[in-house]
Amino acid sequence: MSFFETDDSDQGVVFFSKGKRQIVRGRRTSLNYEYELLVTGRRRRGMQPMIVSIDGRTYRFGLQDHPGEQFIFMLEGEMRYIVGEKSYVVEPGDCLYSDSRVPHGPKLGKNQTARYLVVHTGT
Question: What is the pTM of this model?
C-alpha cells in the first residue's frame, strides 16, 4: 500500500510530521536557495506547499516561470519579489498571489535573508 493511498476512513487526509520534511536545493542550483518540502512523495496533488530560505550573500537572482499559480506568505526577513515588470517589497506577514506563468522571483541584497511559505498549484 502506498503512503498516499487513501480510503474512506481517512477522507483523503495525510499527516506530515515536521520530522518527515525534506530539504532540497533549488532546481536551478546557480540560484542557491533552499526548499523545505512540507508534503513529500510523488503522488499527484493540486498544490505543493514549501518553505523557501534564501541568504542574500550566496543567492544569485534569476526569474523563473512554470504552470499554475503561486501564493507567498513572508515569514522572516525582507525581499523584493519581481513578477513580470513589477517589483514588490515583501515583509513578514505580507502575501503575494500570482500567475506562475509570468516570470517571477525573489531579489535580495547581500545583507538580506528571507524565509517564506510558498504554495504552487499545478496547471
Answer: 0.80
Q: Kind of pairing, strands 104-107 and 79-83?
A: antiparallel
Alpha-carbon span 106 to 119, nearest angstrom: 15
Task: Name the residue among 40, 41, 24, 21 with its Cα closest to residue 32.
Answer: 24
Overall average pLDDT of the 13-19 stretch: 76
pLDDT(6) > 50: no
User: For residue 21, which phi and psi values (nearest 5 degrees)?
Assistant: -65, 150
Cell 493511498 found at: 5
The domains of the chain, with CATH numbers, are 18-121 (2.60.120.10)
Q: Read out DSSP for 20-79? A: G-EEEE-SSGGG--EEEESS-SSS--SEEEEEEEEETTT-----B--SSEEEEEEEEE-E
